[in-house]
Structure prediction request, 217 residues.
Amino acid sequence: MANLIPVINTKTIQKLKERIRLLQDFDGLFQIDIADGKFTAWKTWNSPEVLKKIKKIEKKFELHLMIHNPELMLPYWLEVVPKRVIIHLETIKNFDLLLSLCKEKEIELGIAINPETPFEDLNQYLSKINFVTILGVSPGPSGQKFQWFVLDRIKKIKSNFPQIRCEIDGGINEENIREVKKSGVDFVAIGSAIFENKDPLERIMCFQNILTTPERN
Prediction:
């Protein structure tokens, strides 16, 4: 069974707060995207101090850090107490430092891989991390078109590293979620297909039902 992770990917603090309020009764994990405008051309609001002031969200969310200097910035983001942090493979310079910082704070560390990055680049980290985030789109804004070939990456990880949990993030909607589910993925992160809908809470319920209902033979 796969778990739904609603994704908040927004340029403004106002929208960030609105969407967090919308998720106040959601009993699973949600994701907050952070983009610095350097690793990717997309830029979100970008201040740990903002999240520190929002009450009652500690350990209820994961941070997807689309930033070019995670070794420098991670200590500041860990202060907002996420349950887990996702760092991009393409940005890592000192993995041992990143892992040590997360372990010290008892925060899970996952690695994200872009669609265009060779899958083999991930192998050196798979014995050391909690989970992998497979991007179905290039890192940046929500609403991009899903790249189907990335599902093969999930199947590969599940076959060769069954202890690793897999998350898929980007481009997932009503049209492809059932096929995504069949890949054996553990977490399905969805942004625009939830929050750009006129009834986001209804969309959450719809996606949860799809992910938790057993497939008919």
